[in-house]
Amino acid sequence: MATTLGTVDFHVHPIPRLINEKELSREIDRSKIDVAVLLALDVDSSYLEDKHISSRILQECIWASNLNCLGCLENVKEILRTSYTSNEYVAKLAKNNPSKFIGVGSVNPSKSISYVKDKLKEVKNLDLAGVKLIPTLQFFNPLKEKDKLQKIFEFCEDEEKIIIFHTGCDPSIWEEPAFSQNANPAVLEHYVRKFKNVPIVLAHIGSYSRKYPGIWLEEALQLGKKYNNVWFDISAVPYLLVDRKYVEKISREVGWDRILFGSDYPVVWGSNISTVVDFIQVGTPLSENDLEKVMYLNALKLLGL
């Protein structure tokens, strides 16, 4: 079994409706995680109360014939209600345990520009390390919200913060690529090129999909190949570090200096952090030096620890 100097989990969701602070701390300690990056999720189920929006989603469900059209809206609302994790809550967890937790805030670009500005002030005042964006659950198109994303990237550049951007599909309706196109890494090139001083982490390396594993891996790697400010986390797709064909592809295209371990705990059903760590350490063909980069050293460098 390969071992590493330590472990930083770059992708943890401290969702209050799924796990409390004590349970989270217990899991972090049990899994021997040195530092966990906790992600807020600024999502809003009331977005679907707009009749035009709900009608459009229902129409798209009909086009995607394998979806349960009658249940999809309520299912999506419940996912959003469950997932919401405030910036204040994440900041509180980080403040309560600063040696273990680093908080990352979230801003919803589907809301007004004034809302985005207020949320960015909140991220700054709470001393959070960056901004989490998730175009699936936040229902935004990066190419249609340029004014808002411009503000977010300018803020992160000025305040020296990172951006963690969800790429790939998501559960429920977002398992259909038609609903997740806004999370294709290719749509980010405008921002990555313009803001080369802003580190942007492509969560899931464009690869999360139960139906189409590795769905936009190629787009993610090509973006990282062109721009050194692009990083990647392997949350929800740990097989990328075990399956030799993926390992060889990542090694050839971008190498291992910008790949980050992440568990996606606790939102991956049937999995905990130690399960993911063991799966990688037992099965990976990576060298010990490269594995240490992925599990520990790269995150320390990115976080300035």
Can you walk through the features of this model?
With 305 residues, the chain is α/β, with parallel strands linked by helices. The chain folds into 2 domains: 15-40 and 84-303, TIM Barrel, CATH 3.20.20; 45-81. The chain is built from 12 helices and 8 strands. The protein has helices at residues 21-30, 51-63, 69-83, 87-96, 113-125, 146-159, 177-180, 189-194, 217-226, 244-253, 273-283, 288-303, and strands spanning 8-12, 35-39, 101-106, 130-133, 162-168, 200-208, 230-233, 259-260. It has an 8-stranded parallel β-sheet. β1, α1 (21-30) and β2 form a beta-alpha-beta unit. The protein is globular, with a radius of gyration of 18 Å. The two termini are 27 Å apart. The mean pLDDT is 92.
CATH class of the largest domain, anyone?
Alpha Beta
- Count every beta strand, where a strand is a DSSP E run of 2 or more residues: 8
Query: Which H/E pattern describes the elements?
Result: EHEHHHEHEHEHHEHEHEHH
Which blocks of ≥5 consecutive residues have pLDDT under 50? none
Global morphology: globular
The chain-level mean pLDDT equals 92
Q: Total domains, how many? A: 2
Spatial ordering of strands, largest sheet: 1-2-3-4-5-6-7-8
CATH architecture of the largest domain: Alpha-Beta Barrel
Gap between N and C termini, in Å?
A: 27 Å
**What is the makeup of the main sheet?**
8 strands, parallel
User: Which range does the strand content fall in?
Assistant: 5-15%
Helix proportion = 40-55%
Q: What is the fold-level CATH name, i.e. the topology of the largest domain?
A: TIM Barrel
Give me the secondary-structure category. alpha/beta
